[in-house]
Amino acid sequence: MRKWYKYILNYENNVKFITKEETETYSAQEKSMGYSLNNGYNSKEDFFRTHFYNGHPRLKPYHDYLKQNLKKGEEILSIGSGRCVNELLLIEEGFNITCSDLDQPCREETLRLFPELRFVRYDVTSLPFGRRFDCIISLSVLCLFDENALLRIFKNIAESLKPGGRFIVDIGGAVDNFITRINDEAVCRLEVELICMIQRLRQRRCVVTRRHGGYRTKNDEIISIAEKAGLTLHNLKCSDYLTEIGKRSILLGRLPKRFINAIGAHIPYVRIFTFVKDHE
């Protein structure tokens, strides 16, 4: 498990480092994820067109996997639901999902469009949910937590599952290996520093801010943590071989697609694990 950083061009202030504690707050995540009102709240169609079909490319493989592996008769809990995009699309298709997070962005507008949404404030780092579910899902949020915190979270999730229940999780972000390390600390960093230098030559005030991005993990690290919590790996599905290279790096993103695919094959951005709770 490796702590990693994003290097961003900052025109707002002279802050050069944003700490782990600052990035873990809900307000920081709200800003980072762009949780603001926009025309996506004019109608259900606008919502899904804006936030799903034109949203982050990981949402489509999430939906495909969940639709194939969830059952409509199950009680399902979503952890760290955020804007609830994947969950709301599944709810529209008849799945029984309760969403949860530290808070919900645009809550009133979301309920106006989706009055059937069930949302509860819940901190999975603190304690089990309080009742048990057939399946719990968590999509691209647990990358914020280190190994000790992840073990505590996995134990709370295991306690919130019925015997034989499933935990479907994408920790978030590409696998930790040599390629992602080089991309994080060399390619992306140098690109931002170069752009900052050019902007300063143009008399624009800016700094490069190093922002804690969470933790890069290896697959076997996640599996080991789950096993310690009483969860057994049932399935691992990897996909999206373009995002980590093609989207994060300006330079590498300009390479021919076949080269991006060749590199990306070693660092899939989407890694969906399905774990099963041991029978009690």
Chart the SSEs and their pairings.
Layout lengths: L1 E9 L6 E2 L1 H4 L2 H7 L11 H10 L5 H11 L6 E4 L5 H8 L4 E5 L5 H7 L4 E4 L11 E7 L7 H13 L1 E10 L7 H24 L5 E10 L2 H10 L2 E9 L3 H5 L9 H8 L5 E8 L3
Parallel strand pairs: 2-8, 3-4, 3-6, 4-5, 6-7
Antiparallel strand pairs: 1-8, 7-10, 9-10
Helix pairs in contact: 4-5
Labels describing this entry:
280 residues; alpha/beta; Rossmann fold; 7-stranded mixed β-sheet; 3-stranded mixed β-sheet; globular
Please provide a written account of the structure.
By secondary structure, the chain is an alpha/beta fold. It has a single domain (2-277), classed as Vaccinia Virus protein VP39 (Rossmann fold, 3-Layer(aba) Sandwich), CATH 3.40.50. It has helices at 20-23, 26-32, 44-53, 59-69, 85-92, 107-113, 147-159, 178-201, 219-228, 243-247, 257-264, and strands at 2-10, 17-18, 76-79, 97-101, 118-121, 133-139, 161-170, 207-216, 231-239, 270-277. The strands form two sheets. Strands 5-4-3-6-7-10-9 form a seven-stranded mixed sheet, sandwiched between helices. A three-stranded mixed sheet has the order 1-8-2. Helix 6 links the parallel strand 4 (97-101) and strand 5. Helix 4 (59-69) packs across helix 5.
